[in-house]
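We emphasize that the prediction below concerns an isolated chain of 311 residues; any contacts that depend on oligomerization or on bound cofactors are therefore not represented. The input was used exactly as deposited, without trimming of termini.
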Amino acid sequence: MWINPLKSIILMLFPTSHLSKKRELNMSKIMDGKKVSKDIKKWIIQRTKELKDSTGVVPGLASILVGNDPASEIYVRNKRRACERCGMLSEEYNLPEETSEEELLSLIERLNLNEKIHGILVQLPLPIHMNPEKVIRKVSPDKDVDGFHPENTGKLFQENPSAISCTPYGIEKLLDYYGIEIFGKHVVVVGKSNIVGKPAAALMLNRDATVTIAHIETENLQAITTMADILIVAIGDPQFIKKEMIKEGAVVVDVGINRSESGKIVGDIDFEDVKGKASYITPVPGGVGPMTITMLLWNTLEAAETFALGK
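Result of the prediction step, given as a C-alpha cell string:
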C-alpha cells in the first residue's frame, strides 16, 4: 500500500478543529478551496524560501500558451501571479496560433535542458494542427508538473507517484483538510478523462477506497451515484447531478466549470438542490478550482527540490 508522504504535512498544516467538526442537521459543510489553498500556499512560501537559502535554487515554472484563447490566457496569468506571490520564477511563452508543432517541440526541448526551469506547463487545448499526446510526451517526466506524461500516470497507477495531476491532487488535499475518511469508502468518479477522472480514481484506489468509474453514457447512472460515500463529478454538463442522484450524507466534489444560460458560472452539480442532502460539498467557483493552481505550485516546488538534491 502506498503511504502518502505528504499526509503528515497536511495534518501539521491544518488545525485539528477542522477534523472534528460534525455536520449540522440538514446543513452541508462547504469545502472552501480558497481557504485551503491559502493555507497550503503559506507553507509553499516558507519551503520555497528555505530551498533558496540553503541551495540557491529558486523553483521555476514555464507556461506555454499557443493561440489567444481568453480563458487560457486568464488561467496562465493567474498561474504567473501565484508563482510570484510564492517567490517562484515564472516564465511565459505566448505563441501565435499558426506556430508549427515542430517549433513548439523545439521550445519544450530547450526548456527541458534549462536548469532554471523545474516545471513545464503546456496549456491545453492546443490548436487543431498539433498532436496533444506528442506534445505531452515531449515534456521531460521530471518537469511534468501537470502529471500528464505517460511515465507519471503509470507511476500513479503503480502506487509510486511523482508528479500527480493537479486537479485530482487538489481534491485529495481538500478531503484530507476536512478530515474526510477515504480508507474503505466507496468513491464514485463520474468522468473518465485522463486529466481528472482516471487519475482521481487511481488516487482514491491508492488510499484503499473502493472505486467505481462512471461517465455521462453510463446506463442507469443514478443507481451508481447513489451508492457513493464520496462522489467526484467531472463531466462538463451544467448542474447535471440532482439531489435524487446522491445518497444522504454523501461527500460531493464538483470539478465542473460551466456557464449557465443566464451567464452564471456553475458546476456539474446542482449546488442549491444538493447542498442540504450532502454532508460536505464543494462550491463552484471557489472549491476545486483554487486547489488546482496550488497543487501546480506544490509539484513545481517538489521538482525543484529533487533537482537541488541531485546537484
